[in-house]
Structure formats: structure tokens, C-alpha cells
Write a structure and sequence with these properties.
This protein is α/β, with parallel strands linked by helices and about 425 residues long. The protein contains 17 helices and 13 strands. The longest helix is centred in the last third of the chain and has 18 residues. It is globular.
């Protein structure tokens, strides 16, 4: 095993799931991160709560790069007090069942560094505002040494200033480049595709940016892959439906598309700086991405050079039918290069190690990490904490995002 600059650590992760990717984006994130950490010499124990939903659809029951244990309840989990107590790092993830009790027990038990890994940060904060988060309470945030967030930008300052996090840092989603590679077909099966679990607010955008173009161009074949779509949805005849695509088949799936669509949940659009794992995966596979717009997108990809942005069916159609083939290939090539340069799981493992170094350093010597990407100005003002809350309240019209997201796993990425 190749080791990084940090001595091997004992790491315990309590996450939603690493064994099943059905209906959630957490599993692929954990798999990539854990595999990269193991490659750097670290020893990982992953603890996953057994649920009937994931038990019936485990596509990787025994990940080869970590020890995985399935527990049935909190009492069974407490049998692992010894490894949690002795671990150098313990990470508790968002959407862990009975997460508040689990997190409180971990915080009371662990003697090493503790971190909360929020793969749903804007959703979490919207629920915390209403005291409805089923896996986290505000009082726990200052007790975690690090708050690891899928979302960057102003949210990080908000977590530190408003909620008292000692250190809020991004740990964005990432891809494993060994699994996500270009597998382009000479004649793609679909002109446009989308992969994602059903989400009510995303469905409206999916209808505008994929279903409406399909209705207007009936000879164009398109595809929507993902679980839990209501049976009442009327799919155009030229839109193929796939219930689930296993991670091992993601590259092949993207290779069958001329373009793929990236859509973002409303709460994450309003928060900004919230790239999805599907966005990075598609780019790594060399499939040109058409995305909705959110603040910070241009910090991850150069618009019109590495990614395409659309807000109407007309704009989507222009890309599908008018963009020259050489321009399409150039976009996909540059986007993949960007992923390999900054957004692989190895990058995230190294970033996590750097945060652990900062936790161990005296507070006065801790180095703040960029919140807005490499182009951020040192004098750029950061919105006051209430700004984010006001935006969330207005965008979600009294807590719509919290209501929608409280029923896991249907609302997961």
C-alpha cells in the first residue's frame, strides 16, 4: 500500500451506507473516499445501520478496502465502544439512522478527533432552523472537532459563526478515476440522459430540461435512470426509464449518451457551491454535461469550455442539435482533465489529512482553507449568518425543503 505524508491512522466511519448504492449517493462517495484513505495506509472500520431498504439491495456487501460491520440498533453499536474510543478519527455522517443518539454517544466515547460529515449540508441547515433534523441537533456541532461539508461558500462561515463549529471545511464529493473512465460508443444510444433519485423540486426542472425537449423532438432518444419516481409521471415515448444503474455500470451508462444532464436540489441551488457526485462522475467519464446554474459552478468548471449551462428547453435543444461534434469532444476532454486535476478521491483523502493536521495544531497556527475556490479575493465580503437563513426561508417557502428531505432515503442525491 502506498502511504501518504501522515502516519497510518485508525479511522471509524458511521455512515448511511457503503454496502448499497440503491436510491442514494452516499455509498459511492464513501466507497471512493475509503478506498483512497486505505491506499494511503489508513485502517478503516465502517459501521452501517441495517435497514430493510438497503439490506435488500446491497451491491457491495463486503468492500475490500475496509472492515464493514452491519449493526441492528444502538445497543449493538455500543459493542464497538473500544475501537471508537481508541480511533485517531471518528466520522459520523448525515442521514445516519437514529443519528442524534449515535452522534451523542460517539462524542461521549471517542478520545481522538471527531468529525461530522454532511453530505446534505443545505438540507441539514434548513431542518436545523426548524429543529427537525433527525440526525443532528445544533448543540452537537461545537462538540465535533471538524464539520466536513459537501457544500462550500458562505455556509462554512455560517457553521462557524452561527453554530460554533471549531472548524468547518469542505470535503466535496469526488470520483475514483479507476472506476470512472471514458467508454464512449461510436453511436450513442441516447442523445440526452439523466441519472438521479426522484426529488420533487428536481422533477420540475427535469420536466423543463429533458422531458419537454423530448416532447418537442420525438425522434431523439433520451433516458432517465433512478429510483422512486411516482407511477403517475407520464413519460414521453422516446424517454427510456431505468430503475437503477449499479456503480460498476455508471461509466458504460454515460458512454451511451451524447450529453448528460445535471440537476440540483432547490436548497443546494440557493446555498451554492454544491457540486453533486453525479456531476463529477459524468465529467470523469468524458460525457459532456448540461447543467442548471448555481453560484459557484464556475469555480469547478469553466462555463462553455468544460460545462454547458441551460435554463430552458430551447437552450438544451441548441446544444443537442447545433453544437459541433469537435466542440462537444473538446468540452468532455477538458472537463475530465479538470476532474483528474482536482476532484478525485485521492485529492479528498489528502485534504482530510490536511484538516487533521490543522486540528492538531494550536488554534493560532491553524491555516484557513479557501471557501470559494482558487479565485476568491482576500477582501471578498462574506454574507452575515442570517443572510443564508433568510435565503433558505424564502426559497423553501416556510420549510418545504425540510419537509421533503425528512423522509430518507427518497430525498437523497
Amino acid at each position: 500500500m502506498r502511504r501518504g505524508t501522515m502516519n497510518p491512522l485508525d479511522i471509524v466511519i458511521l455512515g448511511l451506507s457503503i454496502t448499497s448504492s440503491w436510491g442514494n449517493g452516499h455509498a459511492t462517495t464513501y466507497r471512493a473516499l475509503v478506498r483512497a484513505l486505505a491506499a494511503r495506509g489508513h485502517r478503516i472500520l465502517f459501521l452501517e445501520r441495517n435497514t430493510s431498504w438497503y439490506e435488500a439491495a446491497r451491491d457491495l456487501p463486503r468492500p475490500p478496502y475496509c472492515r464493514t460491520v452491519i449493526y441492528r440498533n444502538l445497543n449493538e453499536l455500543k459493542k464497538f465502544a473500544a475501537p471508537i474510543r481508541s480511533a485517531d478519527l471518528v466520522i459520523v455522517g448525515s442521514y445516519v439512522p437514529n443519528g442524534i443518539a449515535v452522534g451523542q454517544w460517539v462524542l461521549d466515547t471517542a478520545q481522538g478527533i471527531t468529525a461530522f460529515y454532511d453530505i446534505d449540508t443545505p438540507v441539514t441547515l434548513a431542518m436545523l432552523q426548524q429543529r427537525r433534523a433527525p440526525y443532528l441537533v445544533a448543540e452537537m456541532i461545537p462538540r465535533y472537532d471538524i464539520y466536513l461539508s459537501f457544500t462550500g461558500g458562505p455556509i462554512l462561515d455560517h457553521l462557524e459563526r452561527h453554530y460554533g463549529s471549531p472548524m468547518a471545511r469542505t470535503l466535496y464529493c469526488a470520483v475514483d478515476p479507476e472506476l470512472y473512465q471514458p467508454r464512449r460508443q461510436r453511436r450513442p444510444r441516447w442523445l440526452l440522459g439523466y441519472m438521479g433519485t426522484y426529488c420533487a423540486d428536481r422533477q420540475r426542472v427535469l420536466d423543463r430540461l429533458l422531458l419537454e425537449p423530448a416532447r418537442r423532438h420525438r425522434k431523439a432518444r433520451m433516458v432517465v435512470a433512478g429510483a422512486q419516481y411516482p407511477t403517475a409521471i407520464k413519460w414521453p415515448a422516446n424517454v427510456e426509464r431505468i430503475e437503477h444503474v449499479k456503480p460498476a455500470a455508471h461509466s458504460k451508462f454515460y458512454g451511451k449518451q451524447s450529453f448528460t444532464l445535471n440537476l440540483t436540489r432547490t436548497s443546494m441551488i440557493h446555498a451554492g457551491y454544491s457540486p453533486s457526485v453525479r456531476l463529477f462522475e459524468a465529467a470523469a467519464c468524458g460525457c459532456p454535461v448540461i447543467s442548471d446554474w448555481w453560484e459557484g459552478l464556475d469555480q469547478f468548471f469553466k462555463v462553455d469550455e468544460e460545462i454547458l449551462v441551460a435554463d430552458s428547453p430551447v437552450r438544451v435543444a441548441e446544444y443537442l442539435f447545433d453544437l459541433p461534434a469537435d466542440a462537444r469532444r473538446a468540452i468532455s476532454r477538458k472537463a475530465r482533465a479538470r476532474i483528474l486535476a482536482a476532484h478525485t478521491a485521492a485529492h479528498r483523502a489528502a485534504e482530510l489529512e490536511s484538516y487533521l493536521h490543522q486540528v492538531r495544531a494550536p488554534a493560532a497556527r491553524r491555516v484557513s482553507t479557501p471557501r470559494y475556490g482558487p479565485k476568491r479575493s482576500k477582501t471578498r465580503s462574506v454574507p452575515r449568518p442570517t443572510s443564508f437563513l433568510d435565503r433558505e426561508a424564502a426559497a423553501d417557502e416556510g420549510g418545504g425543503a425540510a419537509r421533503e428531505s425528512s423522509a430518507a432515503p427518497a430525498s437523497l442525491p
